[in-house]
Design goal:
The chain is an alpha+beta fold and 393 residues long. Helices cover 29% and strands 17% of the residues. The chain is globular and about 65 Å long. The protein starts with a strand and ends with a helix.
Amino acid sequence: MRTIGLFAGIGGIESGFRSYNTSERLLCEIMPEAQSILKTQFPTAEINNDVRQLKELPDCDILCAGFPCQNISIAGDKKGMQGHESSLVTEIFRLVRTNKPKHIVIENVANIISLHSGEILSYITAELHNLGYSWAYRLIDPRSLGIPQRRPRFVLIASIVMSPKDILFPTEEIIDAYIDEKPTSESLQNNTAAAYGFYWTEGKIGIGWAKDSIPPLKCGSSLGLPSSPAIWDIHNNFFGCPSIHDAERLQGFPIDWTKPIESEGFKNSMRWKVIGNAVNVAVSSWVAQRIMSHLQTSKRLDNISHKRKKAKWPKSAYQDLGQDLFAIESSPYPLGVNYTPILDFISEPLTPLSLRATLGFLKRVECSTLIKYPAEFIESLHIYLKNQYGYIK
């Protein structure tokens, strides 16, 4: 099976498919730092730096595209199709018209479903319909696949040879699977978690709580810092951040996957940025496994569904060619909630949150009027400041 990756980043989608004996024919990525990684990790693939310069799509079985999310993400400008970066989704379909692959895999942030009434999603599905593809989409969180990172992402599969709904929706799925992310005094007293991840760069209006996991790795923070979220080790009153190696693992990559950035002379901080931009390999590997096993067995998987109502896009849906559009019940956890707790997952010691960072965060916490923090969390911050830095407020 031959793959082509548009907006390939550091190869998150392609790495997942590689595990199932696919070969990468072409990878297209404009960011030089990411290109340096692709050239090292995919030495036999042709590397192109601008999707807009491709005249036609070479022959392939699977087209992968994690197109830019800057104008779609909650943290972005929310311009949608009017944004310079996310409007590049149109390049996918310009190229598909030149040479149709059997399958298309598209990944993006969850906000694509609701932003501007699903404007970009409406465009994508209309284009797929006009090109003769059946399609299905859903949200997938890697915490269903062993990875302790809260990172629900939109994944769409389109195909001209099978029904993608059979790929994306396992019959054994627990559709009401749920994780209660926010710590409370009651949950802390009952020891329901050993740790919580959060954004230490925030605190006034949001924090990104993640139970026994971390919130999404990002390419930058609200303070403009390329760094990882923090982890509160509850029982040790410790606050620290994962290493760059564990950040790679939290995206499903092997350690030092992004090291070519350093050897090519780019800033080391760019490793954090490209990791934050990446597609999680655990998610793409699960998608690849589903596609390949379906190709081998041709087993049909049925699922209960219902017709879409109103104009609002559901969290999961599908449309087989020539059929009605259906919503389908699902959770972000196709295999249920099934992940290794973050303190057990990390392979290297957490880097202590610095005195300056901790004091700045604590100040934002104490002046916040929008978030109710458990008293135990604030007390733990003070204990950490005293134990780690001898600081008493």
